């Protein structure tokens, strides 16, 4: 019975993933559709990074072209661009303490889009943890290097932060009914925050399928319970 209940629990967990983040409009013709599914599954589901924020960084860095040298989609460089993994010597001095070495994704080719997204979003996740989920400071640190940025750094006049912020706001406006009121050069973790519930699309067929799995699981428990 314990094994059966474990199976049911796993099935129930599999029905919780109803959310599907809406793909934003390519506001300037950028090929975001080529990578949106991968961005959501890797950046959000694996590393808990706002996919609209991650997409905005990628747009700024490479315009969603995985073949842009030298660092691919995220234009990875420095120690985080190490293949297949960076040298561990000097790691603690070169990276924030939230960047856990043994959790870093392996990369065999920086110009492989999927591997690049995995490594890039792992790094964004590390920066977000280090800067207490401050997306503005994280963007600044991604551009300038975390060693030169603190939580007190003034980001409001930084061009990189302004560009990424504008891209993110445009993406969010394209999938919601009302424009966001974030000032230019200001970002928040909008997917995780209450203000971005409209960015999440609950597909009816996912819900029906999930309910069906639950019902079948309960029937199975009852039948096998009676046999014993």
What is the topological layout?
Elements: H1 2-14, E1 19-21, H2 36-44, H3 51-62, H4 91-94, H5 113-130, H6 135-144, H7 159-175, E2 200-202, H8 204-227
Antiparallel strand pairs: 1-2
What would you say about this model in short?
The chain has 228 residues and is an all-alpha fold.
Task: List its salient traits.
about 230 residues; mainly alpha; Lysozyme; globular; disordered N terminus
Describe this structure in words.
The termini are close together. Mean pLDDT is 82; it is low at 3-18, 191-198 and 201-209. By secondary structure, the chain is an all-alpha fold. The protein has a two-stranded antiparallel sheet with strand order 1-2. Helix content is 47%, strand content 3%. Helix 2 (36-44) crosses helix 5, helix 3 (51-62) packs across helix 7 and helix 6 (135-144) crosses helix 7. The chain has 2 domains: 1-18 and 205-228; 23-202, Orthogonal Bundle (Lysozyme), CATH 1.10.530.10. It has helices at residues 2-14, 36-44, 51-62, 91-94, 113-130, 135-144, 159-175, 204-227, and strands at 19-21, 200-202. It has 8 helices and 2 strands; from the N terminus they run H-E-H-H-H-H-H-H-E-H.
- Taken as a percent bin, the fraction of beta residues is under 5%
Number of structural units classed as domains = 2
Supply the number of helical segments.
Answer: 8
DSSP summary, beta strand count: 2
């Amino acid at each position: 019975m314990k094994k059966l209940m474990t199976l049911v629990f796993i099935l129930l967990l599999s029905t919780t993933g109803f959310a599907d983040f809406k793909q934003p409009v390519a506001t300037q013709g950028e090929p975001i559709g080529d990578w949106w599914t991968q961005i959501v599954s890797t950046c959000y589901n694996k590393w808990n990074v706002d996919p609209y924020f991650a997409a905005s960084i990628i747009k700024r860095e490479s315009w969603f072209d995985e073949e842009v040298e030298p660092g691919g989609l995220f234009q990875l460089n420095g120690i985080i661009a190490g293949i297949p993994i960076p040298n561990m010597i000097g790691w603690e001095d070169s990276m924030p303490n939230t960047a856990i070495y043994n959790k870093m994704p392996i990369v065999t080719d920086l110009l492989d889009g999927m591997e690049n997204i995995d490594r890039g979003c792992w790094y964004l996740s590390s920066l977000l943890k280090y800067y207490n989920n401050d997306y503005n400071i994280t963007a600044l640190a991604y551009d300038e290097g975390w060693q030169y940025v603190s939580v007190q750094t003034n980001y409001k006049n930084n061009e990189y932060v302004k560009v990424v912020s504008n891209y993110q706001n445009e993406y969010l406006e394209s999938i919601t009914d009302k424009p966001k009121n974030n000032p230019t050069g200001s970002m928040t973790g909008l997917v995780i925050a209450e203000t971005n519930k409209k960015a999440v699309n609950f597909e009816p067929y996912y819900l029906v399928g999930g309910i069906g799995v639950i019902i079948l699981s309960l029937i199975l428990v009852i039948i096998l319970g009676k046999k014993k």
